[in-house]
Amino acid sequence: MLSRHSRLGGALAVIASILAFSPGGAAAACNPSGGLSAAQDPCAPAPETGATTTVPGVKARLVDGMAIAPASAPPAVKQVIEAANRIRTKPYLWGGGHGRWWDTGYDCSGAISYALRGGSLITSQLDSTGFMSWGEPEAGRWISVYANAGHAYAVIAGLRWDTAGSIGGTGPRWYAGTRSVVSGSFAVRHPPGY
Fold first, then answer.
1. Contact criterion met (CB below 8 Å) for 88 and 48
2. pLDDT recorded at residue 81
3. pTM
4. In this predicted structure, what is the pLDDT of residue 167?
5. Which of 107, 146, 150, 171 is the most exposed, fewest CB within 10 Å of its CB?
6. Planar angle of CA 7, 9, 13, nearest 5 degrees
7. Which domains are delineated in the chain?
8. CA–CA gap between residue 57 and residue 42 (Å, rounded)
9. How many CB atoms neighbour CB 41 within 10 A?
10. Which of 15, 25, 156, 138 is nearest to 88 (CA)?
């Protein structure tokens, strides 16, 4: 009987600590307006195992749906990839990621905003139209955002970060191909220096 209570007490302690530091938990001091990097934000989940692993070269590698950053990437780019990996299994949700950073789902621009915030490259969410004039014109060396009035996606260290994996859309996911399935002309922008 004592061992059952002991295990129950241990399990309750673990659950209490998770609730205290998880999004929406009693002790969470979420900062939905920005200002914190994803690593500092209690609204963001802990990085997954292997999130700090890198691969040689200048191109990220896709492994089981997760992007592994290239070793030669600047720290901010690695942080963008790490942040994107946190939401890579979330569903598509129109408007998701715009009212708050940590959300139940993300739309195209919400997913890009979340990823860029991870590297402190953006301080507030933008919609796809906002990304059309954000940053610097043309493709960047490490990060390129493609945007028009109806859709946005990014190419980060050679992998596509997009909510439209198929015509029906899937939610934020990584893809090896760099062209979105969404057709049309896109403004191409990049964060200064990247």
1. no
2. 98
3. 0.74
4. 55
5. 150
6. 115
7. 46-190 (3.90.1720.10)
8. 32
9. 22
10. 156
